[in-house]
Amino acid sequence: MKTKLIHEVRAIKNKKEIANIIKAQRISERVLGDVLKVLKTGISEIEIENFIKKYFIKYGAPILSFPPIVSFGKNTANIHHEPSKTKLKKGDTIMFDFGCTVNHYCSDMTRTYFWSEPNSKQKKVYLNVLKAQELALDKIQKGERRAKVIDKVSRDFLGKRYKKNFQHGLGHGVGTVIHEWPNFKPKSEDIIPVGCVMTIEPGIYLKGFGGVRIEDMVLITKNGCVNLTKASKSLESAILSV
Questions:
Q1: In the predicted structure, residue 1 carries a pLDDT above the cut 60
Q2: CB 130 within 8 A of CB 233
Q3: 1 exposed, middle or buried (CB, 10 Å; 0-12, 13-18, 19+)?
Q4: In this predicted structure, what is the pLDDT of residue 2?
Q5: 163 pLDDT exceeds 90?
Q6: Domains and CATH numbers, the chain
Q7: Cis before residue 186, ω within 30 degrees of 0?
Q8: Is the distance from CB of 213 to CB of 110 less than 8 angstroms?
Q9: Torsion-angle region of residue 153: left (phi > 0), alpha (psi -120 to 50) or beta?
């Protein structure tokens, strides 16, 4: 009971804590912009991982929220892929999941891209994951606070299209650690409090083909939520010219 109380108190962020999270997120978005400029055919996942770490240091945020996830091609189907020597090639799906800390407060963001014009299946998966995220955000915006109800709207939408493929919770609290209470999960009894920062990160992972995950951080407010993530996620912005 005492632990639950501590979790609940910690989940509700004051203005200073929110400012730190937003600052960490803005730095992450700056790094993402830099990464997109250096992508080229033949570059490896490890090279990009090292670039990400170097640029977080450059922008004064050397302590990351977690080791960056950089995956190309079929590797994007692995939820927790560790960067390897895999090289970027035309037609690949690209996934980045990273964040940094500012005064101990974390940021967390995932973006998926396509190295040249994606095929119809890649586009379809991307648009379905984006729609699943929008459905969850809409639920929160309309005042829903039951974690499992918010998770369900995304999970049901994706479940009709990809059987048992959304293999993780829809999101989690973010604060001084990257995974805080509460959690968006199918059986979660959590009620999301006002003042809490949550991730919304639906994903589809097709073995041998690739995956798509799109993750934003939102601040839960009295009347809905505020999306703290400014990086574009439209399909148009996800298609990178080679």
A1: no
A2: yes
A3: exposed
A4: 55
A5: no
A6: 2-240 (3.90.230.10)
A7: no
A8: yes
A9: alpha
